[in-house]
Design goal:
By secondary structure, this protein is of the alpha/beta class. Helices cover about 40% and strands about 15% of the residues. It is built from 10 helices and 9 strands. The strands form 2 sheets. It has a 6-stranded parallel sheet with strand order 5-4-3-2-1-9, with helices on both faces. It has a 3-stranded parallel sheet with strand order 6-7-8. Helix 2 runs parallel beside helix 10. The longest helix has 14 residues. The radius of gyration is 16 Å and the shape is globular. It starts with 8 loop residues before the first helix and ends with a helix.
Length: about 220
């Protein structure tokens, strides 16, 4: 299969510069638009400036747009992007990056030409090779724990040493360290920092504390 346009190496550099800002990327599901800014502010103040908002709720894109406008210190991305149409919506909302749970040829082709970098989701070596041929070198490993966890990522390193990963799915405060110790892991994605009960209670201090705990524990 011929690929018309290989991904420029600058795209890898862009993703590296984002992921190097924090070891942990909080993955947010925002149900109420008014929660977006105080939640984002709590995370940034707690030391986690890279934030992923999943496009699973009606207000997700507007939340992303507002966070991007009002929290200049944050790098805000769109997660659970499934189609080029959603990718375009994320671009228009000002997303700094796009994350997918898996990847298709259609998404890879769109991502190659988009001004917004994509972190494509993979779970197997075959999926990793599919992304590799489009020029991708940085991937989300999802669902991490269910797909073999640390052992799987160790196995990926030998045949494809140039790939780096952000494992997401089943990551907790207790097991994050075992991932971050791997040379082919650049950061982890987790939802444990923003538990629904704290968001529902508008306990931004509690979330700030969880963010600070993660930032301090997993600092470079």
């Amino acid at each position: 299969m011929s690929i018309e346009k290989q991904l420029p190496s600058t795209r890898t550099t862009e993703l590296d510069s984002i992921c190097q800002r924090a070891e942990v990327i909080p993955v947010l599901t925002i149900e109420r638009l008014e929660d977006a800014i105080p939640l984002g502010r709590a995370l940034v103040e707690g030391g986690l400036p890279v934030i992923e908002i999943t496009l699973r709720t009606d207000c997700a894109l507007e939340a992303l747009k507002r966070m991007n406008e009002e929290l200049p210190r944050a790098s805000v991305g769109a997660g659970t992007v499934l189609t080029p149409a959603q990718y375009r919506q994320a671009e228009q909302a000002g997303a700094d990056f796009v994350v997918t749970p898996g990847a298709t040829d259609t998404l890879y082709r769109y991502g190659v030409s988009s001004p917004v970098p994509m972190l494509p989701g993979v779970a197997t070596v075959s999926e990793l090779m599919a992304g590799w041929q489009y020029g991708y070198r940085r991937f989300k490993f999802f669902p991490a724990q269910a797909s073999g966890g640390v052992a799987a990522l160790k196995s990926f390193a030998a045949p494809i040493p140039g790939a780096l990963f952000c494992p997401t799915g089943g990551i907790t405060l207790e097991n994050a360290e075992s991932y971050l110790e791997l040379p082919n892991v650049m950061c982890v994605g987790g939802s444990w920092i923003t538990p629904k009960k704290l968001i529902d209670a508008e306990d931004w201090d509690g979330i700030r504390k969880l963010a600070r705990e993660a930032a301090d524990r997993f600092h470079h």
